[in-house]
C-alpha cells in the first residue's frame, strides 16, 4: 500500500451549517471552472450574446410594420418582453450540451470520485449559467432600449419583471441539467431543441391565442413561457394580447407557479441522477 492509498478522504461535515458551507464552497469552485471555460472562448460568447439581438432587429424592423397590436400600442414595446423570455428559454440547449459533454467525457465521474458535496456539480453549473443568463438579459434590455422599448410602471415593477424572467431561466436550467445527465450524449441536442422550440413558439410572443384553434389557444395560454411573457408585459406596462380566460387573467400567479413547480420536480431529479450515474 502506498502513502497515497493510505490517505483517507476527509469526512463530510456533520452539522447542517457546515454541510451548507461545504456545498456552497464546492459549488463556487464548479461555477468558477465553467466561467473560466467560457472566458477562453470569447468568440462563442459574443455570438451567443449577439444572436438574439439580431433576431430582435429582424422582427422590429422587417416584420414590425405589418403587425397590429390590439388596442393600439408600439410593436417594439410589445415585442421585447417576449424576446426577453425567449432568450431565457433557448439557453437550455447550451446547459444540456455542457452537462452531457462532461458526463460523456468522464469529467462528471471524476468529480464524483472526489470528496465534494453531492449537489456541488449541478448547482455550480446552474450558478454559472445564471450569471451568463443575467449578462445575456442585460444585453437584450440594452438592445430593447436602443430600438425604442421602455418600461412605464417604475423601477420596482420592472425589477420584478426581470426577476420573473430569471426565475423562468433558473427553472428551465434544472430541466437541462437533468436531461444532460440522463442522456449523456452531446449530439442529442437536437432532441432537446425539439422540446424547446415548441415551448418558445407555441406561446403568446408573436400571436394572440384568440386567433388560434380552441385547443391550441388553450395550450398556448397554459404554456409557462406565455405566463411569463404576459406577466412581464403587464409589469413593464407594455401592450399585450389580453384575454378573458383564467390563465390570461392570472398570468403573474402562473409566472411564479410554473417555475417553482419545475424546480420542485427537476432539482431533486438532477441531484439523484448525479448520485446514480454509474448505476
Automatic annotation (TrEMBL):
The keyword Membrane applies. Keywords: Antibiotic resistance, Cell membrane, Membrane, Transmembrane, Transmembrane helix, Transport. It comes from the Bacteria. The keyword Transmembrane applies. It is found in: Cell membrane; Membrane. The chain crosses the membrane at residues 45-63, 83-104, 134-152, 158-181, 188-207, 251-271. Belongs to the ABC-2 integral membrane protein family. This is Transport permease protein. It comes from Sphaerisporangium rhizosphaerae.
Amino acid at each position: 500500500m502506498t502513502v497515497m492509498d493510505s490517505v483517507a478522504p476527509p469526512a463530510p461535515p456533520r452539522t447542517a451549517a457546515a454541510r451548507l458551507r461545504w456545498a456552497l464552497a464546492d459549488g463556487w469552485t464548479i461555477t468558477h471552472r465553467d466561467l473560466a471555460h467560457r472566458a477562453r472562448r470569447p468568440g462563442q460568447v459574443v455570438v451567443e450574446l449577439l444572436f438574439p439581438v439580431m433576431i430582435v432587429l429582424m422582427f422590429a424592423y422587417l416584420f414590425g410594420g405589418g403587425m397590429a397590436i390590439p388596442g393600439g400600442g408600439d410593436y417594439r414595446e410589445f415585442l421585447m418582453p417576449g424576446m426577453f423570455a425567449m432568450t431565457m428559454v433557448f439557453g437550455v440547449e447550451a446547459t444540456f450540451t455542457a452537462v452531457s459533454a462532461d458526463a460523456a467525457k468522464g469529467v462528471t465521474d471524476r468529480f464524483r470520485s472526489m470528496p465534494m458535496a453531492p449537489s456541488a456539480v449541478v448547482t455550480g453549473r446552474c450558478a454559472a449559467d445564471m450569471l451568463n443568463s443575467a449578462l445575456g438579459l442585460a444585453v437584450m434590455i440594452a438592445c430593447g432600449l436602443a430600438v425604442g422599448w421602455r418600461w412605464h410602471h417604475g423601477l420596482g415593477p420592472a425589477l420584478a419583471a426581470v426577476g420573473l424572467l430569471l426565475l423562468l431561466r433558473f427553472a428551465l436550467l434544472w430541466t437541462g441539467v437533468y436531461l444532460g445527465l440522463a442522456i449523456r450524449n452531446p449530439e442529442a441536442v437536437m432532441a432537446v431543441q425539439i422540446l424547446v422550440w415548441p415551448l418558445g413558439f407555441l406561446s403568446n410572443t408573436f400571436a394572440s391565442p384568440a386567433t388560434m384553434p380552441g385547443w391550441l389557444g388553450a395550450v398556448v395560454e397554459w404554456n409557462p413561457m406565455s405566463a411569463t411573457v404576459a406577466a412581464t408585459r403587464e409589469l413593464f406596462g407594455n401592450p399585450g394580447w389580453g384575454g378573458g380566460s383564467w390563465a390570461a387573467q392570472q398570468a403573474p400567479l402562473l409566472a411564479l407557479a410554473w417555475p417553482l413547480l419545475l424546480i420542485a420536480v427537476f432539482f431533486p431529479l438532477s441531484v439523484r441522477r448525479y448520485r446514480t450515474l454509474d448505476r
